[in-house]
Design brief:
Largest sheet: 6 strands, mixed
Number of strands: 10
CATH architecture of the domain at 1-116: 2-Layer Sandwich
CATH superfamily of the domain at 1-116: Beta Polymerase, domain 2
Oligomer: single chain
Strand content: 5-15%
Number of helices: 19
Radius of gyration: 26 Å
Helix content: 40-55%
Structural class: alpha+beta
Distance between the termini: 72 Å
């Protein structure tokens, strides 16, 4: 039985990056051999075991043969006679197909049958073999690695293969949960815009996120958007979110805040009157299709609906300002409102020439919310009751107190 460290841990170590999750491949073993050594089986689709002490994953060396379409259309074969090279051959990119013996440290030899080390040195993302075409998730993974390693280039032959897969309809068989899993990871990478650029280059974006894909080529008013192209603007906004270390929900809101501009009637361009409500409707369908988590969906809907009002909030009076806070449910969910303000700052600064511009709306609205939250609502309700108010009248009394607090602030 031979044990090898594989995949991302070896790749990152060779790049001088911290090793995060470590994955292991075991060659020459059977499931009963692993059980005899105290390993716990956890794999549903193929033999994977947890180490009794470290709880790291150890997978038996395996091969795969396509038996259908999509992510689950594979027959997996695992046996003691499966070699390490056969196991590595089924992986997606050459930089992920490098193995090192147990106990390996950087600087010592690695097992590299597909020249992944050379591609690491040259900064190339290249598929391992024609088996790449058998799993459409690999299109998403290649795009995600382009976002992680922003200086790497996608090999022309790999891009050509991805285009062939899209044209063959492979993306139609992607499982929504896997799509979101890869998109979410890509959104959190160093330069998330590269993921969507690669998906667009190979044609997959039009299949996976058609609402986003149609933004490219849609003009905006140059006095507000020097970059003009709406798709370019959204990518600038997304990269600004990464620059500001925004959490996932904020980055997704940045990605989808302008979807409605893709449906603007041609006779209105380059103006986009009503794009907020159009965007909310498009976003609802997108979120349902990809089965997004509620926190991402709710924040994205709020930002799509209210980002224009937040941008213009400096001109709002106290009453309108309070209505904005109430529409955003900021009094009950202040943390989510703060995330919406961060997304709006990314939107404002995600424009050519505005990258270093201050966004005072964020601090102003955050302070306004704190003024309202500081009011003792229980005491105000009791005061209103002593004055003979009841029911809705008490609510109106509190509302007026909030307006007065904002006027005084």
């Amino acid at each position: 039985m031979e044990i090898y460290l594989v995949g991302g841990a070896v790749r990152d170590a060779l790049l001088g990056l911290p090793m995060s999750d470590r994955d292991w491949v075991v060659v020459g073993a059977r499931p009963e051999d692993m059980a005899a050594r105290g390993f716990t089986p956890v794999g549903r689709d193929f033999p994977v075991f947890l180490h009794p002490d470290t709880h790291e994953e150890y997978a038996l060396a395996r091969t795969e043969r396509q038996s259908g379409r999509g992510y689950r259309g594979f027959c997996v074969h695992s046996a003691p006679d499966v070699t390490l090279e056969q196991d590595l051959a089924r992986r997606d990119l050459t930089i992920n197909s490098i193995a090192a013996p147990h106990g390996w440290t950087p600087g010592n030899p690695v097992f590299d049958p597909f020249n992944g080390v050379a591609d690491l040195r040259q900064g190339v993302l290249r598929h391992v073999s024609e088996a790449f075409r058998e799993d459409p998730v690999r299109i998403l993974r290649a795009a995600r690695f382009a976002a992680r390693f922003a200086d790497f280039q996608l090999a022309p032959e790999t891009l050509a293969l991805m285009r062939e897969m899209v044209q063959a309809g492979e993306c139609q068989h992607l499982v929504p949960e896997r799509v979101w899993q890869e998109l979410a990871r890509g959104l959190m990478e160093q330069r998330p815009s590269r993921m969507f650029q690669v998906l667009r280059d190979c044609g997959a974006l039009a299949v996976i996120l058609p609402e986003l894909d149609r933004l490219w080529g849609v003009p905006q008013r140059p006095e507000y958007h020097p970059e003009v192209d709406t798709g370019v603007h959204v990518m600038l906004v997304l990269d600004m979110a990464a620059r500001l270390s925004a959490p996932l929900a904020v980055r997704f809101a940045c990605l989808t805040h302008d979807l409605g501009k893709g449906n603007t009637p041609a006779d209105l361009l380059p103006r986009h009157i009503g794009h907020e409500q159009r965007g909310v409707r498009l976003l609802a369908g997108l979120c349902q299709r990809l089965r997004l988590p509620n926190d991402c969906r709710e924040l994205a809907e709020m930002v799509a609906r209210e980002h224009g009002n937040i941008h213009r909030s400096g001109a709002l009076g106290a009453g309108a300002l309070l209505r904005l806070l109430e529409r955003c449910d900021a009094l009950r969910q202040p943390a989510r409102f703060e995330q919406a303000l961060l997304a709006c700052e990314c939107d404002a600064r995600g424009r050519l020439g505005f990258e270093h511009t201050a966004y005072p709306q964020r601090a102003r609205l955050s302070a306004a919310l704190q003024q309202v939250l500081a009011l003792p609502t229980a005491e105000l309700a009791a005061q209103a009751a002593r004055q003979g108010a009841s029911g809705a009248q008490i609510g109106q009394f509190i509302h007026q107190a909030r307006v007065q607090a904002l006027q005084a602030g």
